[in-house]
Design a protein that fits this description.
Number of helices of chain C: 10
Largest interface: A-B, 98 and 100 residues
CATH architecture of the largest domain in chain C: 3-Layer(aba) Sandwich
Strand content of chain B: under 5%
Shape of chain B: globular
Order of helices and strands of chain C: HEEEHEEHEHHHEHEHEEHHEEEEEEEEEE
Number of domains of chain C: 2
CATH class of the largest domain in chain B: Mainly Alpha
Distance between the termini of chain C: 31 Å
Helix content of chain C: 10-25%
Structural class of chain C: alpha+beta
Number of strands of chain B: 0
CATH class of the largest domain in chain C: Alpha Beta
Radius of gyration of chain B: 23 Å
Largest sheet of chain C: 6 strands, mixed
CATH superfamily of the largest domain in chain B: MetI-like
Number of helices of chain B: 14
Distance between the termini of chain B: 41 Å
Shape of chain C: elongated
Helix content of chain B: over 70%
Oligomer: heterotrimer
Strand order of the largest sheet of chain C: 6-7-8-3-9-10
Largest sheet of chain B: none
Chain lengths: ~290, ~280, ~375
Amino acid sequence: MADVAVSPSVVLSLRGPSVTTEKPAVRVTLIVISVIFLGVFLLLPLAAVFVEAFRAGVGAYFAAITEPDALSAIKLTLLVAAIAVPSNVIFGLAASWAIAKFEFRGKSVLNSLIDLPFSVSPVISGLIYVLLFGAQGYFGPFLRSEGIQIIFALPGIVLATIFVTFPFVARELVPLMQEQGTQDEEAALSLGASGWKTFFKVTLPNIRWALLYGVVLCNARAMGEFGAVSVVSGHIRGKTNTMPLHVEILYNEYNFAAAFAVASLLALLALVTLVIKITLEWRYADQIVASRRH
Amino acid sequence: MAGARGLALKRPSAIPGFGLALGFTLTYLSLIVLIPLAGLVLKSATLGFSGFWDVVTGPRTLAALELSFFTSLAAATVNAVFGVIIAWVLIRYRFPGRRLLDAFVDLPFALPTAVAGIALTAIYAPNGWIGSLLDPFGIKVAYTRFGIAIALIFIGLPFVVRTVQPVLEEFDRELEEASATLGANRRQTVFRVMLPSLMPAILTGFALALARAVGEYGSVIFIAGNMPFYSEIAPLLIIIRLEEFGYAQAAAIGTAMLLISFGLLLFVHLVQAWQRRRFGNG
Amino acid sequence: MDARVTNEVNYPAAGLDRGIGAAPRDKIVDVSVENVVRLFGATAALHGVSLDITAGELVALLGPSGSGKTTLLRILAGLDVPTAGRVLFDGEDALKLTVQERNVGLVFQNYALFRHMTVLENIGFGLRVRPHERRPSRKEIKRRALELLDFVQLSGLEKRYPSQLSGGQRQRVAFARALAIEPRLLLLDEPFGALDAKVRRDLRRWLREIHDKTGHTTVFVTHDQEEALELADRVVVMSEGKIEQIGTPDQIYDDPNSPFVFSFIGESSVLPVNIEQGKIWLDGHALDLPADDVPSGEARLYFRPHDVVVSDELAGAIPGEILAFRRHGGTRRVDLEVSGRDRIEIELPADFSHGLSGWLGIRPRRYRLFPASEASAS
């Protein structure tokens, strides 16, 4: 047997040949740069929220979040989400049903329209409703005469929130349902099921994880929306302030600890959202087609 | 509805509910999106073209638009560079905590903008964690344009990372091998073969981050300082005009911003179309 | 046919342009593979493989998937590192050279062309990335690239992008790109695997011409035996990480030395037989075919369907009951049942006439006997 010489290059390579990867020193440097960058830009702000929230002590923290204006802000936030999210779910289901199960002209226009809010500044999202329903808006006089308050009241906040968040559910459902095609529904119909039965027993189960995913994202954005709601809300303490707006008010009054206390609740919501999001992506990746698309 | 359905559908379908679904969708979109946006454009049109032009090019407005645009440009550029590095590290390397880091990249998507805004201000204020480190050197971040850019870097980062990641993941290793056999060292392979191929994805991510940053309000408004002509961002100016009951002016600025956003979106579409034509699909 | 068997370096015949593409005399290498082992965890992709390739040869590594042929090729290229063993280029240790230093031209099955570069830029890539001292001027690079483009008969396409080319054109660009660096060794990984049958055949012929013109030492991997037998000076048949046989195409086809090679190359029919007293016994009666030097005991008789003589005389022949007749291109195929359980197929001229049923006596003209222990379940 010839001498089994193991050449030096075998010893040098860390895990097989290194043709498709960088030298170890480069790799470590890039990893360190990435960790530092993410740490400074992402982790630090998150940590700051919690640190500043408890700066005045635990007692002050709980006082801040149970104070009446804070509580009504929390209630308003939840109420707005409770209206906006289901509404957008219905829209998402309707839109994806139309787009995925049928062939018609103008589909790409429809898709672009659905994506529209992502390209619109939040302030503009609120502005457009003020222009329509505000005191000097197109419908302003009419609303005043009927005694209906949209801007500076709940309906305006809900509208602005709906505008900003309706794409989230639709964007998750449309690609998935397009991928799934019409076979299951056609099979159910041929077996005698009615349209609604088919929808609830065949379609919905097929899309449930993508639906949950979309709902979670929609909800996070709905509860956290600031710019659009800020324009339509009127900032009336205890009445038309959502949590983000309440945070702003406290902050502008230099009540920093309290502002961060309320903000920490929103940050917790964000973390929970992230956890659910990641779990859904890991477990049901194949049923959430758009999960990498953002 | 059957008649409308016959008109709209390209192919007859046994599946019910088309009219209902499409009708509801279009109604919803009209009420929530199209009519309000039309209202915006109409309102700014009441100024007439020269009036519109005057508002948009007025010194304060121009300063605000320029500020929003150029800080966004700077932030998006930083995000493009570091976003590629981070995407590279997350896709190509294996190290402890990688999955956690990957999940964390989505934080700016999930965290409410106001929360991010006050947190960033706290950090970069002269007495903040980082601000206090820089203050002795005379470097001020909070309440300056620098601070605005920092906030915009925060919210734009995930766009680049998430757009580049899937493309990098699918990158054909054989191309790297071919490059090496032809004599290129690793640096040459990365910069001459891989990065050019990733460029469409990087540009897309850059444009998305830029579009988001131009309209950003919540993350920026606290750290900005909001001094007219210096650190006043365009969305804030819209709000100020609204409070002054200058609806048409606010609408005009809003329309201008929409045009910028749509221009960026168009750019993204063009890049993707060009890429498909040049490089073929897949 | 004879020209392919020679191991001399094939310098282009007089009259052919000896400029671009042709390998300089001092650059073509002998390749020596000594006992190369490649383990992936506990599995061995290569079990100690040895092989000598003379400068200028066109060698085929032939085998089914999993035979280790691609692993061996990648080790030659430097893209993979053996767990043990040596690889020598002209007597020098090649394993201590990096991929870049080996100066090996590699052509991939899926072309691996750089999509964002034009054809010309692709071809010139290897020259552009050379270190400063060895890099030609931009004009020179362009000139050489155009020459190579002409050499592979794709002139006029220099400004096109790979996505605008057909599969066959892309592969020729890949060749030109590999040739541009004046490689010492040309390695082809199933180069025609991604192409249509007709394009494949055309490019096979073209590859042989290119090789004859340039004279590079070339090793190509394929699972298509037709391709290997048609193109190569020598064929290396591999299976499960080992080399089964090395030889010229004629040797491999006419003189297979193992059951695997016999059944992998060309068509084969197999029958279980017994060797006793120097005779071949099939189902109790002796065949009047010599048993060669095969030891007594159970054995397998291998022969090719078209290598038979057929008659009605059953004595001393393999008796086969006709099951079916088939027309197969320009010949006839007959399915026969032997010993009531084994099926064999034979090939006869199309004008062979016989009743549709009955018995035929088969005598293989050429055959091999392998002890039953050697015959794998192939």
